[in-house]
């Protein structure tokens, strides 16, 4: 359909920009995954992997320039909802591929899922309804 084709063209042009925000890259990676644009998906995921925060055996993404959280005893920091959301989009992009994800992709996805699940509150929800 021409509207979808034009939208994908706009996304492809935007993906070529040098300075793209990490949140935007996460959304575009998932959009390209859904559209079956495997090369674009892989390129964005490669770029996102370089910006990943690896901590405590898990992987997530955060906003650039964010202040590091204080490491306090008996306090479990929960990330802002936008960071949970963009990390979830990267996970979706990681798993949305044809053929099925490789073992390496699944291993990396499990590190992302570990971080997302650590962000749940005691009732099983997250910091917002996003």
TrEMBL record:
**UniProt xrefs under InterPro entries:** A2M/Complement_sys, Alpha-macroglobulin_TED, Terpenoid_cyclase/PrenylTrfase
One Gene Ontology cellular component annotation? extracellular space
Q: Where is the Alpha-macroglobulin-like TED domain?
A: 2-130
Give a Pfam family name.
TED_complement
Question: Which SUPFAM superfamilies does UniProt cross-reference here?
Answer: Terpenoid cyclases/Protein prenyltransferases
Record PANTHER family = ALPHA-2-MACROGLOBULIN, MACROGLOBULIN / COMPLEMENT
According to UniProt, the name of this protein is: PZP protein
Which species expresses this protein natively? Atlantisia rogersi
């Amino acid at each position: 359909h021409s509207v979808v084709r034009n939208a994908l063209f706009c996304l492809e042009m935007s993906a070529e920009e040098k300075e793209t925000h990490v949140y935007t890259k996460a959304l575009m990676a998932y959009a390209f995954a859904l559209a079956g644009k495997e090369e674009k998906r892989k390129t964005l995921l490669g770029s996102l992997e370089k910006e990943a925060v690896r901590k405590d055996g898990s992987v997530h993404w955060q906003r650039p320039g964010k202040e590091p959280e204080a490491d306090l005893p008996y306090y479990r920091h929960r990330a802002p909802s936008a960071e949970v959301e963009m990390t979830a989009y990267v996970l979706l992009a990681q798993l949305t591929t044809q053929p099925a994800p490789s073992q390496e992709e699944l291993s990396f996805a499990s590190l992302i899922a570990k971080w997302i699940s650590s962000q749940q509150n005691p009732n099983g929800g997250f910091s917002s309804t996003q």
